[in-house]
Design a protein that fits this description.
NTF2-like_dom_sf; alpha+beta; YchJ-like_M; 18% helix; 3 helices
């Protein structure tokens, strides 16, 4: 797990800082929306918070592990752009996003995805996603 200066902009792009954005969610505060959970999950990838990623992944689709620390070359995350947050009903939502990253010294790449989220017992969970070409 990487450390972060709590006064710098949050890895998700919020200039309020990690302590006022994704930090409290990483420590157990429930996300208020699917978009907020998406942002905190992006930050968790940046910070190698595999524990958080697995805890916020719905049990029906959650992998046993992600092996983030074993990724070679490790991605360097460059930024997150939330394109759309669509609330379907009180307990279902989608978030379309583009996450930019670089592997090793290679060219920047993009992951464009529409993710599906579900809320159970007052907590949002990532269910699955559809990668866009």
């Amino acid at each position: 797990m990487k450390s972060i200066d709590t006064m710098t902009p949050c890895p998700c792009g919020n200039e309020a800082g990690y302590a006022g954005c994704c930090g409290p969610l990483h420590e157990g505060k429930p996300a208020g929306s699917a978009e907020q959970l998406m942002r905190s999950r992006y930050s968790a990838y940046v910070l190698l918070r595999e524990d958080y990623l697995l805890a916020t992944w719905h049990a029906d689709t959650r992998p046993a592990s992600l092996r983030l620390s074993a990724q070679q070359p490790a991605p360097t995350w460059l930024g997150l752009d939330i394109r759309q947050h669509h609330v379907i009903d009180d307990d279902h939502a989608t978030v379309e996003f583009v996450a930019r990253y670089r592997l090793g010294g290679g060219r920047a790449q993009r992951q464009h995805e529409t993710s599906r989220f579900v809320r159970e017992n007052g907590r949002w969970f990532y269910r699955d996603g559809e990668i866009k070409a």
